User: Fold these one by one.
Assistant:
Number 1:
Amino acid sequence: MNHLPLIIKREYLTKVKNKSFIVMTFLSPIIFIAFIAIVAYLAQMNNDKTRVVSILDESGLIKDVFKNSENTSYNYLEGMSLNDAKMLVQESEGYGLLYISEVSEEHLNSKNITFYSEESPSLTLISALESEIQSELTLQNRIKEGIDVEKLKASIVSIDINQESFEGEKTSKVDSVVKLIFGGAAGYLLFMFIIIYGNMIMRSVIEEKTSRIIEVIISSVKPVQLMLGKIIGTSLAGITQFVVWIILGGVLMTVASLILGIDISQMQTPQQQLVEQAMENPEINMQIQNIFTAFFNLPLANLIIAFILFFICGYLLYSSFYAAIGAAVDNETDTQQFMLPIILPLVLAVYIGIFTVIEDPHGTVSTIFSFVPLTSPVVMLMRIPFGVPLWQQILSLLILIGTFMLTVWFAAKIYRVGILMYGKKPSYKELIKWIKY
Amino acid sequence: MNNLLEVNNVSKYFGAFKALNDVSITIPKGSIFGLLGPNGAGKTTLIRVINQITMPDQGTVILDGEPLSQKHIMDIGYLPEERGLYKSMKVGEQAIYLAQLKGLSKAEAKKRLKYWFDRLEIGDWWNKKIQELSKGMAQKIQFVVTVLHEPKLLIFDEPFSGFDPINANLIKDEILRLRENGATVIFSTHRMESVEELCDDIALIHKSNKILDGKLVDVKRQYKINTYQVGIRANNQSELEKQLSEKFKVSKANFKTLEDELKLNIKLQEGENPNDLLSYLTSKGSISHFVELIPSVNDIFIQAVKSN
């Protein structure tokens, strides 16, 4: 008799009806969005305060270079000594003092420029000042040397090398970034999913053991069926939770940005601002268009199918480990010693994904680890956007499925013996003995 | 087919440890079978083999004429010693789920549960969670769940633990009623007085071996010690005692009587007849008490385990 659907249904309903599960499902996105909104709001408040930067330029070279911006205003000081200027700024509680000492212009360099402030100044501000002074001095130098600035500007050529594979597939740098984000997101999602819901499976197995219902249940169903039912039921509950999170998160994000008037999606970290300042790309629209083309250039069908297959197999592989651990121990504190062998390959996979796949998606290390069953789901998912030959994908999947069946068999053995063992904390040696029972 | 269950030469190893050694038992249809043994003897392992929770390394189990297989799960109802229910699940939901696992349809399960809940007067627990119930209450539900699918074979491991005397009696009557309706019962317990009261057959397992089995009366016959408890009044009781101890193997007995009689246990030798003893005693005084001493299951248990 097949009780699998019945067990799945019970596991699913028990999880979904559980109070703390419901609270987590609805509270997490609220907390998350509230957190982002608060950070964004605070950052904006911080930016809203106009900082006054005083400038004492004894060289007289960079007058009128700085223009007041939304959150910084410049105040030129004249005819006073450095000490007076410092005191003045300090007393007026200005943000800081940019001091350029008097020198002959040939020698104006970093040594002559100092920024004085109460506390260490903002990185963004300093780099803004640097880039302004730099371009002003460069310009002055060019004029002095008799270079036609207009001609020079017109002569600058911007190059974006077209990339094309021998089969005629076109790619670009933007493509690579989009691919990276896609692969990374897929791999990371799997990683998170395994950790969160694997633990949930483990806890539910332990609960069955501690409530001593297990013997009643397995006098009716095979332990393997119970284990698979648990894994599938819990996973479905997990997917439900994920979907709610995404929908609720999206809605809340929109609501929050409307209410607070903050464009959260436009929130930038100082690093991003630096990058953009450095690039000063006039063709932002062009970039966005490129991203869209890149997105549609991805092997989407392949990506989606591979994502589903690798995600399911990878998740099932790990969750059978979690189920076996849950069966082997009496309470959650005893699980620690068995967690390392699970977490280690997962973390390894993510690191390989982040460091090696980016550098060289088809290199030896990336290729090997996209076949090793414990790391392949994550690594392969990260590699696929860069175009992996079909035979490699199929081979890797077959290895994964083979290993999965082996682990389920192995986990079921431990599970079968473990669920009826009480009172002692098993060692690895004992687990191996159980397999032989 | 007079035997519902036949366990033939079953052995089970856990690594180097032998949990069952060549154990065979037969359980007649419609009987209550007492499975006895000290702690750790292998009773639970044997019960798990019958339930197909553990597979035997050697030997076979025949249920109702067929080798044990997956389909027999519906024919067995098992109340394990280590028992429990899902704590946060509602009583009704949980009972239906467990009944469905035994192959009942949802509607059928509901109907039968209603009957049983009314019968045991626990109908108003339907929507309560297990964690809100006392241990005894949960035990009652566990009992209902065990018998709900009307299995041919019922296995109860310490069924009365956790019950007050009233409820224990209630459950005992239900077990007897189920037997009358055709079920066969395996009953594992350390309470010898309930074995005495309920069981038709017993088997005793000690250190992984079966050391004793058969009909309870046969076992008792086998262990009978040919001893009679006697109460007699005579003019000179100490003289009589002396005479008797010369003729028979005599020891002091202890039981309640109305007068101050001479109370003795008298053991007959092989070939001696109780009637001869009785007529000898009548000639010596007036007899107020003459009973054959039948060994209790408790005595048999202790004697059998100690001699092995």
Number 2:
Amino acid sequence: MAGLAGAASSGGDTFPKILLHNADVFGTRTAFREKDFGIWQSWTWSEVLNEIRTFSLGLADLGLQKGDKVAIVGSNRPRLYWSMVAVQALGGVPVPVYADSVAEEMAYVLGHAEVRFAVVEDQEQVDKLLSMKEQVTSLEQVVYDEARGLRSYDHTCLHSFETVQQLGRKNLEAKPDLAEAWSEGFSGQTGADVAVMLYTSGTTGRPKGVMLSFDNLVISARNGNAFDNLDQTEEVLAYLPMAWIGDHVFSLAQAFTAGYCVNCPESMDTIDVDRLEIAPTYFFAPPRVFENMLTAIMVKMEDAGKLKRKMFDFFMGVARRAGEKILNGEQVPLSDRLLYGLGEFFVYGPLKNRMGLTRLKVGYTAGEAIGPEIFRFYRSLGLNLKQLYGQTEASVYITLQPDGEIFGDTVGKPAPDVELKIADSGEVMYRSPGVFVGYFKNDEATRSTKTEDGWVHTGDAGIIAENGHLKIIDRAKDVGKLADGSLFAPKYIENKLKFFPNIKEVVAFGDGRDMVGVFINIDLTSVGSWAERNNVNYASYQELAAHPDVYKMIEGHVDQVNRDLSGEPMMAGAQVRRFLVLHKELDADDGELTRTQKVRRSFIAERYAPLIEALYDGSKGKHIKTEVTFEDGRIGSIEATVEIRDMPLYEAASGMEEAAE
Amino acid sequence: MNAYVGAEKLPVAGDPEREELLRVDNVSLSFGGVKAITDISFDILKGEIRAIIGPNGAGKTSMLNVINGFYHPQEGTITWQGKVRRKMKPYEAASQGIARTFQNVALFKGMTTLDNIMSGRSLKMHKNFFWQLLWRGPAEREEIEHRRKVEDIIDFLEIQAIRKTPVGRLPYGLQKRVELGRALAMEPDLLLLDEPMAGMNLEEKEDMSRFIIDVNQEFGTTIALIEHDMGVVMDLSDRVVVLDYGKKIADGPPEEVQASQAVIDAYLGVSH
């Protein structure tokens, strides 16, 4: 494994060792911040060492032993991050769990991981754990951070974070050489030991426990730091689920290896304000966050005064023309450069400040494709926003966009130390120091994912473009073929359509059929505001969705997508022949979306079978009755006649073709 | 409602360890010819949640107004913390340690959540006009101290996100929560809640119930509440007083009251 020697040489090869190193080197630098009681409370690296050590010793006193699994449940709190390292110091393995997962799912994960201890945020999580005592028989002790509401609980197996720390402190006072013994205890750990177990939110079947070693995380994190020149001066905002590999790497692995500061927001509702106050220098967000920020800005601009609006429009024009080029270090006419400077003062600067991105050094987005318009907007403001492609099994990094080589439709070049290849089936495969150890108690799945010589199947279909950048098309298992043999990648088509603000969700069908047909969900906010401006009256989503003008608008979007597709040799055969606008919004409550808002294609195919039939039998419309679940759990139904439209197709462009914008 | 899982209540009624916080003896109140309250007696023990229920016009709100000293009854006595209460001026009533929320939200709409809750601390600010004017020094220190207390409450009620939002822009459920926050800022011995859940949806009700239980358990605050939602009353309260036409018709633990024929008649309506 390349880079291993480097990892061991500076600061240690496990997080507890790195912690000792950081307390030594960065002793007085701020390591963690949390906004509490309206103020940013902070801890330096040496204070963090102290907190982790006392907690760790307390856990040892409670009986935590080498190899024990410890569930970590809750939102991003410094104490929960510390717990992970405290557990690692004793040779235990932390298992962060999605705090908002339903009890049944959580019970499965905790039972499968055989957790003995759990460190949780508050009463809500304690209640959840207590309710699953019967399924999770291995669970013995629960530690909570927030005492509120727990006063009258039976405290024989329940402890507050403070009391555990007090236990550790008391032992430390009684035996001063305990601190020494504690460090001694983990000095023998090596990079090959399992550091953490993260459960992937399997869209198919049960979640799988991905075991990552210290080497996986430490080397990947160091490579990531080196790639973007991250050092101890960075500030990040920890707000994404702790059970997700991205957060684990950005807020723990990279923070420890680089020594930078992790900021925990006050609550999930205050993130916008907290980000503004912290102004992170390194920021990660799924596309959805960037979309929402942009929408908020645009809505506010609509309400702004005439002068401001004019100024905004003018300078955004300049930014579109010159911003990205300046960011990429390309040649730009002097006049544009001067105007851009002015724009920075009048518009871009204040805008970035509003979003809390003033100090941004590098930002990443991943998880899903981001709309090119949105991506370009941020980049034109001079924000170094890039895309990456990663996986839990890879300790995040597979490909990254290097500075100056940003293409909207690709996810970048292989990250440092990562080898990449495309299998004959079209599936993307990689090999890297970050490749996981295996799935916990699931050798069969490990064997089918990881080959003997260390290559991992990503499950995604992709192509490597001429410039060496990877382009992801779809999930490998979703990619199919039309009856005439042309490639059909539903996600690819769906994403192209979803980039239009008026379209919220799309489901494309076509595998094994003679043409592509799609269901479309309009975006109520966006189309609703269009309706308001154009005096279109409507009483409900259903009515708006069926409005002829809306259909006309969507038709225009589909047409545009077909034109784009015709320009791509591989995709030209899969243009959209027929579409319909669904009469109801796809909803997770009805099981049509996953809780992470991803479309459940097969479920929808079953539920709307009559509509699919109508898509393919050439009829102009179809009456359908659908059962819906309301927010309070009542069940009702809605009926509608859904119109189906035919679309003209474009001739596939032959030979060399510029990439569609 | 599983919002209260684990919130096992300790028995209160007849618990000799609990001392009496407030005692109402044979109180009658009338406005001209209208008799709002007739000869009512009950007590509120320290640390309990006491519900006052009854059909519309039964005299519940009048009873609260008598308890907090806004009305002075024509007959009967009120014993507050062991002392029989005389007729008070409004500011005396306010400083005796009883806080309340109102049936319809009574906040300063143009002020932020933070300022509204801070206003609940005003009785506890002691620096005089001169120091306030000078601001730097003692007055500033005092304000910081109060702000800390208020932040505690904001944290407790989980309203960090609306700290700087003018309350007039908040949805009703949140306004109610801010109002509770302001009452808590007074650090009252007795908290009177006048229909804390009126007009709320199920989720807001569950939240509010949890806050009420938490206030009671974490701060040990004694609570007297008027509420129409019987589910809430039965779940929350230790003891219930039932009024009808200004008269007390039942008093006791929720199960007992629920089974009482007089109460059933009062709610379903029988001819008098």
